[in-house]
């Protein structure tokens, strides 16, 4: 009978467990066909000597000299005696040797920066991961904390979050108050020297319920738990970047409480702009509520980033202009344009910074790097401006 066939079909589609298993196995195949390396097989980017010199803040001649007099180990040579490019770890050795590390002084406050907007899909994780990698390439000690159970940032480091990671390797045990003293247990090295990651997986969602339930029982101070965790490891870093989930929940509020700087990505579309207005209204309300319980965030800067910008669309151009008027100096001047290079890198679960060559064309990659470096460079200046020890240098560079 037709109905029984239909019933079988319905029963099949209702077997969520089987669907989940099938989806996971397809995902595995997609990963293989995308040739996306797993976390332990990832390679850090490399830099030819000219780029290395620029990043380290010394001339190529100074690098060669330090190599010939034994202060630095020269890179190995490949076929036809060509020097291999430098790894990030080698760049950091050079910075140590030349005294050009850009680290904060111990008395400067660690920068705890959340890339936040309650709207989904606006480019939070893309911005957070590229910013973390950019700052690591520039020599800072960076920790990226994935606070979202969707784990997009974690995925971009080569993890299959629900396969490779247990909940005990995420924020979850720490947020389940009292179990751990510090967040150190969750810190993982990444394939970028100087960049560490606290990963997430789906189980972290459990915290959302648990925190909400305990807060409903009057334990509002729990919103402080993430801030305490961040403080427990902050001595090790210059910058700690938080990638929160899109919804307004206990974790997002905890992120807001923990952060001392905010970057808010906003694509220039009417929908995203209007939800950002709602985000700001909620942010204002939330800050007042947190103030009432002595948990107000102390923000040293709040910046808006035009993200996923497609300026071939006249509507977007108009909105970008409007955003500049509304946000004024709080707007990051460089827009993060929508780029096929980012799109293609993400499709391989990778980032633009870890690839040594273009996914598209050299021209598209170079353009994309100009936006990314521009955006990250502006944020880097904001961060350094919060460090008293950096102020004289910023003034000398004409940046403060
Ligand atoms: N500048 C860009 N150019 C091209 N694609 C982009 C750009 N920024 C983001 N994307 C793509 O848009 C999608 C959403 O981006 P992303 O995951 O960074 O957003 P999100 O705000 O973190 O989302 P969620 O709210 O789900 O956490 C991703 O597929 C990402 O690759
Ligand atoms: Mg995200």
Q: How would you describe what is shown here?
A:
With 400 residues, the chain is of the alpha/beta class. It has two domains: 50 residues; 286 residues, P-loop containing nucleotide triphosphate hydrolases (Rossmann fold). Helices cover 47% and strands 10% of the residues. The protein has 17 helices and ten strands. It has an eight-stranded mixed β-sheet with strand order 5-6-4-7-3-8-9-10, with helices on both faces. It has a two-stranded antiparallel ribbon with strand order 1-2. A hairpin with a 5-residue loop joins strand 5 and strand 6. The longest helix is centred in the last third of the chain and has 23 residues. It is globular. The model has no long low-confidence stretch (mean pLDDT 90). The chain binds adenosine-5'-triphosphate and magnesium ion.
What is the gist of this entry?
The protein is an alpha/beta fold. 47% of the residues lie in helices and 10% in strands. Helix 11 (225-233) crosses helix 12.
Largest sheet: 8 strands, mixed
Segments where pLDDT lies below 50 for 5+ residues?
none
The CATH topology of the largest domain turns out to be: Rossmann fold
Mean pLDDT: 90
Distance between the termini: 78 Å
Small-molecule binders here are:
adenosine-5'-triphosphate, magnesium ion
CATH class of the largest domain: Alpha Beta
CATH superfamily of the largest domain: P-loop containing nucleotide triphosphate hydrolases
Number of domains: 2
Strand content: 5-15%
Helix content: 40-55%
Net shape: globular
Strand order, largest beta sheet: 5-6-4-7-3-8-9-10
Figure out the total of helices: 17
- If classified by CATH, what would the architecture of the largest domain be? 3-Layer(aba) Sandwich
Structural class: alpha/beta
